[in-house]
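Worked problem 6 (solution included).
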Amino acid sequence: MDSFAQLLSADFFLLALLAGLSLSLVAGPLGSFIVWRRMSYFGDTLAHSALLGIAIGLITDSSPQLSIIISCLLLAALLTVLDRKPSISTDTLLGILAHSTLAIGVVVLALTDSIRVNLEAYLFGALLTINTTDLVWVLGVVVLVGFTLHRFWNDLLSTTVHAEIARIEGVNVDRLNLILILLIALTIAVSMKIVGVLLITSLLIIPPAAARRLADTPERMALLASLIGAASILIGLIGAFYLDAPVGPTIVVCATLVFLVIFFAPVGQKD
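Solution. The predicted structure is:
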């Protein structure tokens, strides 16, 4: 019991918990759009590009967090442009960019002999190493993403349900699609230390997928997704401490267990 009390009062734990819970506030609504629009592979592509951002940041001796954000935003914009080209399918394009950016990032990091990088921390997360600067980045992005989602929520919903009808009603569908993609990119960029490159998308899609079976409105689904994500982060942090396990994967395991319980529970399926 004493060790648990010490854990709750430890600065590193409080920083990690605050960062994780803050991120869950926007991960729920954003992840809901990813589930509704079936964009999970898109999230993987952006997540993999983050490793390239780390490599660029280390080579140029600039802020890794800023480099990650810039690389994710640039790739998001590039994907938006290339997705309009009919010569290549979206799945093929995402597959090429996802694996090529990840491979380039790993190779560049391996070739920089003068720089020692804990690659595992970036691949699977290192939530307990979050410092005050990282927390400021997370809180800044959460405020920006949260405000933007609140501002464009109804229009984003209408374009998700039926883009052509929304376009006829005067909604700028292309602009909203770009906004959503950039918001996802920002969220993924600051999520890297929580669950890592390889698991970021799972934190965005598992809680909404679980919430979908319990919610009867988009707003309730987004709220439930945030609550499930927050609970997974809290339980995952505590569980990782007692199990001496990596935090990021433990959080994802907790979210997966919640999903399985809800999935097999006798509740009506929400479409």
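Discussion: The chain has a mean pLDDT of 82.
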